[in-house]
Design a protein that fits this description.
alpha/beta, transcription, 3 domains, Rossmann fold, 5 strands, Arc Repressor Mutant, subunit A, Sig_resp-reg_PhyR, PhyR_sigma2, DNA-directed RNA polymerase
């Protein structure tokens, strides 16, 4: 099997990580493209001592680590100067490795040992880095959250996680129409949306309706993430895979709010 064939199944999830790390589909996908270009240009430099997925993320980490922060900010300026300014201000107050360690463990499911390899620290430092990231992000952000989810148990679980993080829940919707109505009645600062809803309506369509009225960060929840991580069209920046871990939802919420200019500091 060629290296390309070995890496192909992991590319959607690398896009998920890159988008969450950068807070942007276009910016995250750009780093993934740069990673693939580097591998194609010098396949002999691809890590051989680890499995392909770990080698792929390691190569991405090298590309990300070598990028100039100011150049990256300029690339995303067209996506919203105010939001970018807020994101950069928050970045200045948090070590990049902390954010990476949190996303790699909670969202991507890497072990502490693998995460240590990816961010180039000792394994016993990973837990400390993750703790620092959660403490700093939770201290910085709070929001009012609309949940769009038609499965009661899952909705209750998400609501508990949201409240445990110190956020408020504006409502729980099970259909597209109900979601839009709740959003118009009480504008949320964050939306968590399932893809398939109770009446066969779409969470994606509900979000499109909401975004046509006002801007709000969105996290999609789906059992089929590969369908929304192709890099071939406008796709979600933040995505959670069903079934999910509580830590995954917490990391996604924290990271989505990290890049939101409207977020109010807690405390």
């Amino acid at each position: 099997m060629s290296l390309g064939q070995q890496l192909a199944p992991h590319l959607p999830f690398l896009r998920r990580y890159a988008r969450a790390l950068t807070g942007s589909q276009s910016h995250g996908d750009k780093y993934v493209r740069a990673t693939l270009e580097a591998i194609v240009a010098a396949p002999e430099q691809f890590p051989q001592e680890v499995d392909p997925r770990l080698g792929l993320y390691r190569t991405f980490q090298a590309i990300w680590g070598s990028a100039n922060m100011d150049d990256g900010a300029a690339d995303t300026a067209g996506e919203g100067d105010a939001a970018e300014a807020v994101a950069r201000a928050r970045l200045a107050r948090m070590t990049p490795r902390s954010r990476q360690a949190l996303l790699l463990t909670a969202m991507e499911g890497f072990t502490p040992e693998d995460t240590a390899y990816l961010v180039d620290v000792d394994a016993d430092e990973v837990e400390t880095l993750v703790g620092e990231a959660l403490t700093e992000i939770e201290k910085q952000t709070r929001a009012r959250v609309l949940i769009i989810e038609d499965e009661p148990i899952i909705a209750m679980d998400i609501e508990t996680i949201v409240r445990d993080l110190g956020h408020d829940v504006t409502g729980v919707a099970v259909t597209r129409d109900e979601a839009v109505a709740l959003a118009m009645e009480d504008r949320p600062g964050l939306v968590l949306a399932d893809i398939q809803l109770a009446d066969d309506s779409s969470g994606i369509d509900a979000v499109k309706d909401i975004l046509s009225e006002f801007a709000v960060p969105v996290i999609f929840i789906t059992a089929f993430p590969e369908r929304l991580l192709t890099g071939e069209r406008p796709e979600p920046t933040f995505l959670i895979t069903k079934p999910f871990q509580r830590s995954t939802v917490k990391a996604a919420i924290s990271q989505a709010l990290f890049f939101d200019q409207a977020t109010v500091p807690a405390g």
